[in-house]
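ok trying this again, last paste got cut off
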Amino acid sequence: MLNNRNARKERPAAPVPSQDRGRARGPFSVLGPEVAVTGNVATPADLHIEGRVDGDVTGGNVTQGKDSLICGNLTADTARLAGRIEGMVRVRTLTIENSARIVGDVEYESITIETGGSIDGRMKHVGAMDAAAQPGPRAVAAVNLAAATDQAA
């Protein structure tokens, strides 16, 4: 007769979801529709925003839902925007969906604007060399940390 404990030990462990896909996946954060953030949000991870952010957003890959609002600047490597932004947008690869409304200047290396998407501000194409010189999500966080340290001293 088999003991149930031994039978459990012999079963293989369930695979981790990222292993199922055959590729590693980094962290992923979601600010749901019921979330309202007052202050800056910074992460090198993928970030999906469905709620409201009153502050600057800095991320690796940012996706914005159509009912969300960002009142502040957005800096990211890639962004897919569907909601409203009131502030400057600085993104290397930018997709503006038909429901997106941006009130502020936009700097981009590559851009796609769906019919119906709107920008009320200046648009500036930034070349690959210029984009590489701009601080990315990790560099911005380090600069802010250094500035805060200098001010505290």
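PB: full thing came through this time. The first strand starts at residue 28 and ends at 31.
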